[in-house]
Amino acid sequence: MTLSKHAASNPSNDSRNNFLKGGGEMGAMMRNFDWASHPLGEPQGWPQSLKNNIRLMLNSAFPMFIWWSQDLYMFHNDAYLPALGKKHPKALGASAPQMWAEIWDQIGGITENILETGEDFYAQNLLLYLERKEFAEETYWTFSYSPAFNDAGEIAGIFCACNEETSFVLGQRRLKSLKDLSDTLSHVATLEDLGPAACQTLSSNHNDIPFCLMYLVDGQSRQATLAGMAGTVPEQLAPPSISLTNAGEVWPLGLVSHLSHGMVADLAVPAGKVQQAVILPIVKASGDQLAGFFIAGISAAQEYTEDYKGFHSLLAAQMGTSITSVRAKEEILKRQDFLNEIFQQAPVGITILNGPNYIVEIANPRVCEIWRVQQRDVLGKPIFDVLPEAVGQGFKDLLDNVMATGIPHVANEVPLVLERRDRQEVVHLNFVYHPMRDEHGLVTGIIATAIEISEQVAARLEVEAVNKALLATNADLDNFVYAASHDLKAPIFNIEGLMDELLQHLPQEVAASEEMRQLSSYMYGSINRFKRVVSDLTQVARTQREDDENSYAIDLNDVITEVCMDLKPIISETGAVIQTSIAPGTTIRFSFKNMRSVMYNLISNAIKYSSPNRAPYISISTAPGKGFTVLTVADNGLGLKQADAPKIFSLFKRLHDHVDGSGIGLYIVKKIVENAGGRIEVESELDKGTAFKVYLPH
C-alpha cells in the first residue's frame, strides 16, 4: 500500500488502465500506486464494473468513495479529500474498518447489512466524531450507501455519495442559541436575573458552549462579580469576584478589558475534556462602556474557527445590548416609581386617563378625595363609570375635545355636582386636561390635575358679601361725614357769635377779670378746635367725593413755595430749616389744590412733631421711578416705631397727644394720593425722624 518509486514502469500506467486517466490528484495517485503489492492486484485485473465506477467517481465533483471487496478497500475522489484530513494519502487502498476505526461502531453494521442484503442506506446530518485532525472532531454528514456489483452481478462492495453538513448544522445550532438568548433576555427585568437567565439558556447548547460564566463590573470598573454560570465548571474557575487590577487572578479580566476582541486562555484546571476558554468583554450597546465579561469553554471536538469566534462575539454583543436594555428598564421603573410616589404624595389631584373610554390608570389619593371615592374602586375603570353624573355637566365633552384636538384645556372655579349617598354635593375645581402622546405623536390619553377650591370659593363669596356691605356702610359714612361737616358749621358759628355777644354784655369789671379772660380763652380755644375738626371733616368728605378731573401739569417748586409762605410764622417761630432738592421745572399731572393739601400736611406735621432737642430740619426731594415720580419729605423729628408707622394713616389716629390735631390730616393725604393712582409709604425710627415717600403717577 505504498506508492511505487518507479511510476513510469508501473503497470498502472499501461494503456490498459485508461480508466484511471484524469481524476486530479487521486487519479494520479491511483495511477502511481504500487498495486502489485496490494491484495487487489494490478488494475488491469479488476472487474470491469469496478473500473467503470472508479472512472465515474474520479471525474465527479461531488464527494464519492468506493469500498471494494469484503475487506472494504478504499477508493475516493478529490472532492472527498477534506473528509479524510490527516488520513490522506494513506487512506487510498486501506481497509475502511481500520481507517475509520473511531466510527466503525456506528457504520460497521450498516456496511455489513448492505453487503449481505443489498439494501441501500441514507442518512441526513448524521453526527460522526472523526479523527481526521489532532482531535476527535464533531462532524455532520448527509450520505447514501448503496451496493457496488462485480461483473457477475454480485455484491462486491459499497458505493457512497456524501456531503459534509458540519458548517450548516453548527450554523443553525448557533443561530438558534442566539435567538433563544435574545428571546430570553428580552423578558428579563433586572440585572440580578440577567446573568442566570443568559447562562441557563446557553447551557442547552453544550456542544458549542461546554460551560459559561458571566461577570458584571462595578461602577469604577475595578472589580467583576460573578452574575451567572452554567455547565460543569471547576470551583477554581468560578470565583465570586475577580479584581481587574490584580494580575494574578484565574481569569485575566483586567487585560481583556482593553481588548475589543477578547482572548483565548488555557484553563488553569481542565473542565472535563475542555482545555481552553474564550474571554470576551461585554460592552454596553453604545460601545463606550465596559459592562462585564463573558467566558465560554471552547469545545474539544471543534476547531476554533472564525465562525466559532464570531458566534461567541455575537453572544457577548447580545449580552451587552441586553444589559443596556435592562438598565434602561430599571431606570424607567425607578422613574416610574418616583413619579408614582410624587403622584401619590402630591398636594393636588392627579389622574391619568387612557384611551377613548378614559380608563383610570393612576388616581392619587388627592383626586380620590375630590371625587369622594376610594382609590381601589376607580383604578382600571372608565372614569364615567366612576363619575356618571359628570357626563351631563360637560366634562366628557371637554375630554373628547382634548383627545380630538390635542390642545390642553385649563379651567378655573368650575362646579362639579357629585351625587353621594342620595344627596348632592357641589365642589368647585381648578383643573387642567393635558393630552398624552405616543412615540408617533398620537393622543392616547389625558393627564388631569385638579385642585378643589370649594373653601376658597365659599370664602371669596363671603368676602364679597362683606365688602359689598362695607361699601354700603362706607357710602353711608361718607354721606354722614359730608352732611355733618356742613350741618355743624352753623351751630359752631352761632356759638362763637353768642360768645362774642356775651363778652360784650358783661360788666366791664367782670369782663376784665383774670378769671373771665382765662375762661373765655378756654372757650375760644375749644370753639377753634371744633372749627378745625369741622373743617377737616369737610376736607375728608370733599376728598372722598372728588375725582381727578381737574388734574394738570403743575410745578412742585411752586407748590412748595406757596405752602412755605402759609407756614412762614411757624417756620420762623421754630427755626425750622427746609431744604429742597427738586430740579427746576419738575412737573407732575395733579390737582394743584390737592397737591397743596398734601404738601401742607406733610411739612406742617414735620414742624409740629419736631424734637425738643434739636431744630427742625426738613428735606424735600424728588427722584424718578418706574411710572412714578417719588416725592420724599424727611424730617429729624420725634419719629416713631416702624411697627406703628402704618397706623398714622388711620382716621382720627394720633400717636403723639401733646400736639394739637384731629388725626385726619394724613388720612386725607393718603386718600388724595390713592385717588390719583399713587401710593404713600413711611419709614421712621424713634427719636431719629420720619420720611414719607409719595409715589406720584406720571
Major β-sheet profile: 6 strands, antiparallel
Helical content (DSSP H or I, runs of 4+): 25-40%
Task: Please indicate the percent range of residues in DSSP E strands (runs of 2 or more).
Answer: 25-35%
Q: Tell me the distance between the termini.
A: 125 Å
The shape, in one word, is rod-shaped
Total beta-strand segments: 23
Mean pLDDT level = 86
With strands numbered from the N-terminus, the spatial order across the biggest sheet is 8-7-6-11-10-9
Task: Please identify the structural class as seen in this structure.
Answer: alpha+beta
Residue runs with pLDDT of under 50 for 5 or more positions: 1-13
Output the number of helix runs.
Answer: 20
Please give the radius of gyration in angstroms: 56 Å
Structure description:
By secondary structure, the protein is an alpha+beta fold. Helix content is 39%, strand content 26%. The chain contains 20 helices and 23 strands. The strands form 5 sheets. It has a 6-stranded antiparallel beta sheet with strand order 8-7-6-11-10-9. It has a 5-stranded antiparallel beta sheet with strand order 2-1-5-4-3. Strand 10 and strand 11 form a beta hairpin. Helix 6 runs antiparallel to helix 7 and helix 17 crosses helix 19. The longest helix has 40 residues. The N terminus is likely disordered.
